[in-house]
């Protein structure tokens, strides 16, 4: 029979620790408890984690502080004021066009009454939205409000008397310009939001609401454009001249209303 080898010094130390924390009849559970004790004492003696770097501290402080809103520059204030002003003028004109078109169009084609009412009511709702925004932000309306009112009513009556195709061609032309106009505004506002976010500034809920409102109205204008095309706008004679004149007029009115 082989004689047991004498224990080395480190093993003797472990034996004495086991003997202290485990009963003489050493079970697996007791040994596990003892091992946990050894590992806990060894880990508690390790050095504390290093302090965070100055850069990490700065990041942590920035995350803890509430974000600030960046004040609008004069150029941004001017952009927003002219955007609200021109939108209100455009929605007024659209409301008046449908108001003037509806009686002659519906007199000849009564089945178009629900569609004309639907488009008019949406325009009236858009106008109400921009009236509210102008009052809230103290933006003055365009000085040419009376002139646009007369021209829009005249355009509505004329195209309505020319018939369904001409009335729909008018809608097609107006909504093509207005849809592109809203898209340009949404793009400009999203660029401002992106710049603020990159610089770590807060983008207020009101600003995000304005972008959402413009997107909703833009979609409704493009829906009107679809309705017009579905109802034979492109059969108007001469379509190219009618839409060309109206689109040029819209672009001129937008340009002037942004400034005056
Ligand atoms: Fe509208
Ligand atoms: Fe519209």
From TrEMBL:
Bilayer topology term: Peripheral membrane protein
Binding site for Fe cation 2: 123, 175, 221, 224
Note accompanying the cofactor annotation: Binds 2 iron ions per subunit.
Keyword Isomerase listed: no
Catalytic function, reaction form: a 5-methoxy-2-methyl-3-(all-trans-polyprenyl)benzene-1,4-diol + AH2 + O2 = a 3-demethylubiquinol + A + H2O
Keyword Cell cycle: no
Gene Ontology BP terms: ubiquinone biosynthetic process
Coiled coil: none
Pfam families assigned to the protein according to its UniProt record, in alphabetical order: COQ7
Primary subcellular site in the record, as a coarse category: mitochondrion
Cofactor(s) for this UniProt protein: Fe cation
Pathway: Cofactor biosynthesis; ubiquinone biosynthesis
Annotated Low complexity bias: 22-46, 55-77
Chain positions covered by the region annotation Disordered: 22-77
CDD domains: DMQH (cd01042)
Record key words, sorted: Iron, Membrane, Metal-binding, Mitochondrion, Mitochondrion inner membrane, Monooxygenase, Oxidoreductase, Ubiquinone biosynthesis
InterPro entries: Ferritin-like_SF (IPR009078), Ubq_synth_Coq7 (IPR011566)
Subcellular location: Mitochondrion inner membrane
Enzyme superclass (EC): oxidoreductase
Region forming the signal peptide: none
Family: Belongs to the COQ7 family.
Biological role: Catalyzes the hydroxylation of 2-polyprenyl-3-methyl-6-methoxy-1,4-benzoquinol (DMQH2) during ubiquinone biosynthesis. Has also a structural role in the COQ enzyme complex, stabilizing other COQ polypeptides.
Quaternary context: Component of a multi-subunit COQ enzyme complex, composed of at least COQ3, COQ4, COQ5, COQ6, COQ7 and COQ9.
UniProt-recorded name of the protein: 5-demethoxyubiquinone hydroxylase, mitochondrial
Organism (species): Parathielavia hyrcaniae
């Amino acid at each position: 029979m082989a004689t047991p080898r004498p224990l080395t010094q480190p093993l003797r130390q472990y034996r004495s620790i086991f003997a202290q924390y485990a009963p003489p009849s050493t079970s697996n559970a007791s040994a596990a408890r003892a091992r946990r004790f050894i590992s806990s004492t060894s880990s508690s003696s390790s050095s504390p984690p290093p302090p965070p770097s100055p850069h990490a501290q700065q990041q942590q402080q920035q995350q803890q502080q509430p974000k600030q809103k960046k004040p609008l520059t004069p150029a941004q204030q001017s952009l927003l004021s002219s955007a609200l002003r021109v939108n209100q003028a455009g929605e007024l004109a659209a409301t008046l066009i449908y108001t003037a078109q509806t009686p002659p169009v519906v007199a000849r084609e009564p089945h178009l009454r629900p569609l004309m009412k639907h488009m008019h009511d949406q325009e009236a709702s858009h106008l109400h939205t921009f009236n509210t925004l102008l009052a809230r932000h103290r933006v003055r309306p365009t000085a040419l409000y009376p002139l646009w009112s007369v021209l829009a009513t005249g355009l509505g009556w004329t195209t309505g008397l020319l018939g369904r195709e001409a009335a729909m061609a008018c809608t097609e032309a107006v909504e093509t310009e207005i849809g592109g106009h809203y898209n340009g505004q949404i793009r400009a506002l999203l660029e401002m939001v992106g710049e603020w976010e990159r610089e770590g500034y807060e983008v207020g809920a009101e600003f995000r609401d304005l972008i959402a409102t413009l997107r909703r109205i833009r979609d409704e204008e493009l829906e009107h454009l679809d309705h017009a095309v579905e109802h034979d706008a492109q059969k108007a004679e001469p379509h190219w001249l009618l839409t060309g004149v109206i689109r040029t007029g819209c672009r001129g009115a937008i340009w002037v209303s942004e400034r005056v």
